[in-house]
Amino acid sequence: MDDIYKSSDVNRAMRANLPIVALESTVITHGLPRPQNLQLARDMERAVREEGATAATVAFLDGQLHIGLNENELERLANEKEPHKVGPRDFATVIIEEACGGTTVAGTMLACKHAGIKVFATGGIGGVHRESSFDISADLQALATIPMIVVCAGAKAILDLPATLEYLETMNVPVVGYGTDDFPSFYSRESGLDVSAKLESPEEIVEFARAHWSAGLQSAVLVANPVPAGEAIPKSEMEPVIEKASKEAKEKGIHGQEVTPFLLQRINELTKGKSMRANLALLLNNAQLAARIARALRTSERRKAA
């Protein structure tokens, strides 16, 4: 892509070969209500900086892809009235319309591919929907084809998690549990499903990723980082809530890109805000881990170049 704008912080970090962490922006435009969305965006960037890396929130403003936003741009994005939800298929639409929008996991990964950023933090990845096995997030294709390290709290719990993991296995995407053998399910630390590898440190994750790519594979390494224990909600408590919300979505005829925002909002209502607190905690936790991984990756690259 020719039309990419990098913030001064990101440009400086790239010139100095400093660690950078990409952050998606649909959580700002579609995931959280105002003013929590702007506060979360600031908190995630601060979490990355406090761990010694540069934060690069990715979004579209006036049809231009931005890698990194300044404070005014972040505030503008958080207050956009009708922002686009931008996956890879939507890039051309947003560019042609000179529109604004938040990038999904897949959209952010595509932006990172063009910008040369290798570490990305999000909340939970998309996957195979429970309502229809044909409804598969573009996130999975991006994970299968873009070589980078993606830190998440597992897949969103509203999804068909076994089918999502099967898809990732088929597409040769390793799922690394950070300090856990159990694939986390967003709000919960457990799902009863296995990860493909368990690693205990950012340095081990970087070594694993290097080995994966040196074997000739071009897929991402997905790092599943459980939600902090203090904010976690047991799977047994969440599952009836998710089933109720999913049933309501079907009854209302909600489908496509509207399903996830509806379910997340309804689940927050049903849990009286507990799911929102878990969501915010896991996002910050993932940003911190991604920054530590980005630092370890830069250290590894310098050693290799020496």
Q: What report would you give on this structure?
A:
Strand 5 (84-86), helix 5 (91-97) and strand 6 form a beta-alpha-beta unit. This protein has 306 residues and is α/β, with parallel strands linked by helices. The chain has twelve helices and eleven strands. The protein starts with a strand and ends with a helix. The mean pLDDT is 94. Strands 1, 2, 3, 4, 5, 6, 7, 8, 9, 10 and 11 form an eleven-stranded mixed beta sheet that branches. The longest helix is centred in the C-terminal third of the chain and has 32 residues, at 274-305.
Summarize the topology.
Elements: E1 4-6, H1 8-15, E2 20-23, H2 26-31, H3 36-50, E3 54-61, E4 64-67, H4 71-78, E5 84-86, H5 91-97, E6 101-103, H6 105-115, E7 119-121, H7 138-145, E8 149-152, H8 161-170, E9 175-178, E10 197-199, H9 202-214, E11 221-224, H10 235-252, H11 259-270, H12 274-305
Parallel strand pairs: 1-4, 2-3, 2-7, 5-6, 7-8, 8-11, 9-10, 9-11
Antiparallel strand pairs: 3-4, 3-6
Summarize the structure.
This protein has 306 residues and is of the alpha/beta class. The protein is built from twelve helices and eleven strands. The protein is globular, with a radius of gyration of 18 Å.
